[in-house]
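Researcher: For the record, we're logging two predictions in this thread. I'll number them. Prediction 1 follows.
Model: Prediction 1, sequence and structure:
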Amino acid sequence: MTLLPQTRAIVTGAGRKDGIGWAVAQLFIQNGAQVILLDLDQDSVHREAIEIGALAGIGCDVSDQAAVRDAVDEAEALLGGLDCVVNSAGIVNAARLHQITDTDWHRMIDVNLGGTFNLLQAAIPALTKGINASFVAISSMAAMRGGGLLGSSHYAASKAGILGLVKGAARELGPAKIRVNALAPGIVDTSMTRGKFGPDWEKMLLDQIPLGRFASPEDIAKACLFLASDLSCYMTGVTLDVNGGYFLH
């Protein structure tokens, strides 16, 4: 049984083969969805779309509101509608609070929080006409912990803002039958994190995770699949923690 039959989906941040967005797109396709990939690098996302069996890959900077609207319109036309959006595009930076420049701050907020807003706003008209319409935003455990590890205060602020946006959007869009939910992953084994911890630090971190390992991109993709599918049809405005028990709160 496939969980996303006839589902038409956009997945952002899907241009890297070891990333969360790529894993989400692959799992969605395996579960019957038609998927269009969005990523900043047009060449990369085009190659990955062909390899993964996606309908298309579109280059798009999610912090650019006009570009997002154009990309969503193009995707909707290619798909013949839109039922689901997963926003996995994001950046991270570990600069300490006193080191964060004005450019650092605005880039972090514009990509992580602004990108989520831009995609959600642009997708509303199409999702209103969709089937079991769902928007899934990737936040982070850092939103609740106040950063730490590879993300500093501005990263935490951008990811915490996503959680507030998701709750507000869930209230507002529920009557239109659009569900809006978030994921808060812990440490995920991707190129963004791999090799960033020394052996001693990595062992210390693993010792603090009850399940004893970092997440794989596929672990996060499975949670996205749940939130996008009919299995979560009565859930909106939630933040689903996917951290192996590292941050119990």
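Researcher: Logged. Prediction 2.
Model: Prediction 2, sequence and structure:
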Amino acid sequence: MAVSLRVSLAAPGMSRLRFVQWLLACILVAALGATTTFWWTSQTVTAQIRQIEHNLDALRARNQRMRAQAVQTGWDLSEARLRQLPQEIDFARQLQRLESFSWTQFLNDLESAVPANVSLESVVLNFTDSSIALRGMTKTLTDLERLVERLEDHPAFDEVVLSQHAVKTISSRKKVNHRQVIAFSLTVRYERGRNV
């Protein structure tokens, strides 16, 4: 009867080496897949960049044609003129607001809000933000408080801000009679003209 004997001639640690080989093969396949994905993405992005550059070139050519047509019709397209254009547009918008602004309604609203003991020296309207700067005088602080309250209570006015007030001495023509008044300046937003 023959005795079979199995002797392993492989170097010790060969099974670990094969595991490392499989692991490296998997890493290599994953790296190839990532490289392929990155290449595909870069090709897509490059195509998009080329399309954007083409569109930009077409837009520049169209801009040049329009500029040439504008110069032929007599329009001034110099840099100085183009810088001046926004100011003229703002001015045109202010004129449009002014055209549809009801001065009668504004004066009626202001008259109904100003108490009898208040004298207004100046009324300045700012059409860009619908604000009004008022300067004037009152006999007492109570009259000034009443003015602020009436402006705040009036439906056409909002955001009353008293910027300054001070006691001022006024002398008459004869320089015999001196009286003191409260000089003030305030700003208020005119809401009725908002849609203007």
